[in-house]
Amino acid sequence: MNDPHVSSAATLKPGKRAIGARLRRDWPFLAMTAPAALLLLVFHYLPTLGNVIAFQDYNPFEGRNAFEAFMKSEWIGIENFQVLFADGAFWDAVINTLSITAFQLVFFFPLPILLAILLHGLVSARLRALIQGIVYLPHFFSWVLVVTFFVQMLGGAGLLAQEFHRHGLTPWNIMSNPHTFIMLVTAEAVWKDVGWASIIFLAALSTIDPTLYEAAAADGAGRWRRLWHVTLPGLRPVIVLLLILRIGDALNVGFEQYLLQRDAVGRQAAEVLDTFVYYDAIVPQQWGVGAAAGLFKAIVGLLLIVSANKAAHRLGEQGVYSKT
Amino acid sequence: MNSAPPRTTSRREFLAATALGSVATLSGSVFIAGCRKRARALGSISNAQQTAAVLPQYRPVRFLTPDIPGEGPLPDGYLKFPSTLVRAIAKKPGSSGRPIKTMTPAWGPTPPGLGRNSYLAAVNAELGVDVDPSVQDGMTFAQKLSAVLGARDVPELLSAPRWEIDKIPRFSQAVKALFEDLTEHLRAEHVEEYPMLATLPTTAWQYSVWGGRLAAVPYPTDGPFPWALFYRKDLTDRAGVEAPKTIDELYQFGKKMTRASQGVWAFGNIFQIVQMLFKCPGAHTGWRKKPSGGLEHKYEIPEYRQALEFAVRLHREGFVHPDIEASSGADAMTLFNAGKMLMTQDGVGAWRGTQSEQAKITPGFNIQPVPIFSAVGGDPLAWTEEGPIFYTFVKKGLGKERVRELLRVLDWCAAPFGTVENQLRQYGVEGKHFTRAPDNSPIPTELGRKELADQYGLLGGRVPALVGTADVPHFVEDLLAYSRATYKFREQNPFLGLKLEYPPNYSKILQTTEDKINDIVRGRRPLADLEQIVAEWRSTGGDEGRAFFEKALADNGR
Question: How far is residue B511's CA from residue B36's CA, in Å, rounded to a whole number?
Fold first, then answer.
């Protein structure tokens, strides 16, 4: 920490004067942060209090208003968690979610890096801009559109199947095969988001000092050696950062994509934690159990992110945050 | 899965019917009920007959003489549109000038909102107050409803389908906490302030009572059947194939009409109808009395297994449209209309709307229902539904004057066929939203189809009527003939007249179980898994449900 502001503040005497002085000095920054902090407070911290219903038989119709409903609903300790953990469907959903995350870490996560390197290597700026435009575009499509598009192309009555029928062949079952569903959703995710996800890597690539490449080339390093010894080390902090965030988010794989395709392959393949909460808690108004599932997800996410960050420190990376 | 699609006449309501199968798909859940230490909410049973004291007096008004008087659950039929209409309400209902927020379901594209919709403007001018509707997708209405109820953030007027309400646990508590008690406004002769509401049949009002108090204005049903099996008669005639009369002919229909190489499949989702053909019970999710006493559920009887086997066979042979297999069936009617799928189940209400709209697009288009038959010998069995299609609730705590104003608006919305109000409400403004056919019947224009979505129609109930219009010739006669023929074979519903709020543990497993069975229908699980699924169903709430339904019968001496 060699921020001049911090060090000068540290040399001041602690106490009211110091705070006053710091306020006088920092107020523009504080003012700039205030709206964001307020948003965070109102839309994140305040609703967090609602997690109490995970320990209640929450009945929204108790009392005269929502607050009274919180106060008057019966406290039942950890019963909601017991119900949740005894439910086979919940664990199926957890396993599905983690499998999809693991699968996508291997088959999706590296792709934006490769794409970024590829794009970075393009000499023609116009060609690069064109390709970027094309690969970023699907990110702005909604999942409804993406899934519809896939159904129209690859579905049982889609273009591909029609072509098969025309040649007297039996078409592949792509869209409604529970066994290959994990590949299907990954393919959809790649199609939709690979371009968008490459932006941050492109930015990181542009910060690599070109003289490093020149020096490496002068030392006789070929294209692959430069990639290995210059490009990838340059990207490493960003890769590790995103990896940690992704791992912390392991129980989130998205919602609409699975909601839309759950019927096609059945819940055994497509039920993820979020759709489980939706179908098994929100729709039948099991608020307490739903909140318990949400809390479970948050705690697991926290543990994952802390341990991934620790692991990153061990490996000598900066990670998401550090204590000192 | 026995939720009833409304059998009404407009396009929107027909879509309501289409939506049902999939709406039902979105509800329910699975928790191992055995793990609950205490069963907290138990469901409730009330007898519709015992509500007389809080019901409005029935004061029928007839503005027209029907050509075919209604009988039993079938509404009056009118073969022609009248040339002169009566004004039913003299005074404008609006008095406060404050806009009225409403929420109604609609199946189909969302119409433009207040300020961008000339239909709303026309009706609001007539009402003397602005109704500001929030039209919600009927397919996902259950979830919207869960959210607004859970957040206790209800609009001033809320119209909700009965089949969604039935599935909401603790709904009677929600009524008490969130909705106005209308008893003192409408009870007995008090209803005279609202003469059109007084024309609604008592049988519909009986269902609007929660906890002994009148809490909603009902939208009476206009037909007793939840499902019909429709086919494209124009296309099958061309292929020289007739409507099936036996289960084997149904199978042969699939074989002859499926042309995958041309992108045409015989069937959409027809599993509910197949169950009915195999004479599985349909009352309250599928219960029937055992000869030896007690109740048995359709899942537990051999007929259901046979029906399932048949459905699996249709899937295995590839007779079912792949898009239907891949989704909840939201676009079933699109495929049907395009001739990509030749037979599908739907609410009876699908008939008119589809015919009216498609006849303009596809010359010769002809949608017809398949007369029901039995797959297992004896007479066929027709599932029937009772109770109103929708309820309209008034938000609690608005003050007496506002409630009276809202009820006057609902009264306006309840004006029956043959009135000026009814024509404006159902068809919009002449020359703008509809034009006249030579026989005087209104034919919707493009603007009409775009702007109207029953924003007012669902609110006030209305005395149901079947009205012949030129866009679907002979419809009234055909529908009544079909209905009479089917009604002969109606199921004897042991719960008739009972209003039941299912125990939460039972509501929760409805959809999960259907999901699992759907896995079998679509070939993702072997048929042999049925035993296991039924065992799970019994232990997680099925047996609790049985006890509840048996108690409902015992309490009422049945």
Answer: 19
